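User: Please run a holo structure prediction.
Assistant: Happy to. Please share the sequence and the ligand.
User: Here you go; the ligand is 5-amino-5-deoxy-1-O-phosphono-D-mannitol.
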Amino acid sequence: RRGSPLAVGYGDGEMYLGSDAIALAPFTDRVAYLEEGDWVEIRRAGAVVHDETDAVVTRPITVVSASAFQVDRGNYRHFMSKEIHEQPEVIGHTLAHYLDLSAGTVRLPAEPSFDWKSLSRLSIVACGTAYYAGLVAKYWFERWARLPVEIDVASEFRYREPPLPENGLAVFVSQSGETADTLASLRYCKAQGQHCAAVVNVTTSTIAREADVIFPTLAGPEIGVASTKAFTCQLSVLASLAVAAGRARGVLTEADEARMVAALGDLPGLVLRTLRLEPQIEKLARDVAKVNDVLYLGRGANYPIALEGALKLKEISYIHAEGYAAGELKHGPIALIDETLPVVVIAPHDALYEKTVSNMQEVAARGGRIVLVTDARGAAENSVATLQTIVMPDMDALVAPIVYALPIQMLAYHTAVFMGTDVDQPRNLAKSVTVE
Ligand code: M6R
């Protein structure tokens, strides 16, 4: 094994090699994970593992739980659709590991190897959708815990080799736990003496094994290349961590914590209600499937949701899409706006709503076709003409980035279905990017 993950599957009189337990699931549930530099001799009856010095070593055989094998599509046409619809359940399941709802407190599943109070800085490193989850978390940690946060995509971070402060925490966010650039960044941070925590979905992954502490997302196996349920579970975990940090650092009171925990506890129900908007979004997708470009705008913690919306759409429908902070509109992208361009505006009625409406007015004045994603109050107070307004349930502003991820996932999914692309295995993409 060099770089990419490699696992040995133990069958009856037969042995297997694969990248992970899911790849080996049709054949066996008994799996040993090789360490970096290991090599293995395989015979029908078994395997002998050597480390990079050629010494014979033992790598424990894990019996992978049956739930890790639930990898069929059920009644859904695509894994992506199934995974979108699993979100109420997996978010609830994830939060049950982080919150004590009856006590109104955060209760982390793992004792952190650091003290939130004395941390000097938080560095968040990830790629793609996981990076956008980290970008939302930056807003949360800064606001709720007054902890300075730096965030970067792993491919930049690792070669930038940034100076890292004493007593800093680095958090690596990854569904697969095998993303090469994220792993390299983790190794860099470890070498720099940072406390290293991983928010991962695959707890047997290399990133999980090399981190000092893991905070698992309990999304279950995610098969569709486009990340959906892993993203909202990452956000759920990061929100819980940010509340824990805020409490420990004395920024949040007991009452704040109770209110925030209750808001997080509402997530499964809110996500379920949002899924009921699917027929409206499917209809909208018919129009989106006819265009060449789409612009997504958002502000504050919902700005990364605009970025995620654009990524989701382009990776599975191959329609060009860009996400922007709404306030950046007049610094360039406004030049793109004409009557052919749909502009998806993520704007719950929060403290930044008025600002976003003024950006919408600029879009409307140039003939852009606005798709407004807001709540009842946002819809009622908006006087700008829209192509469509998607009215979300009312919710606490802190959970909005999690719930507002749903409409943009459904829009991307249905647009891709209308386009006839390979939704679960889009061209040129791999589920785990284990090489640079
Ligand atoms: O397994 P990871 O979370 O580390 O993967 C990171 C990205 O490769 C991944 O999120 C990618 O951007 C997805 N295809 C997005 O849907």
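The chain has a mean pLDDT of 94.
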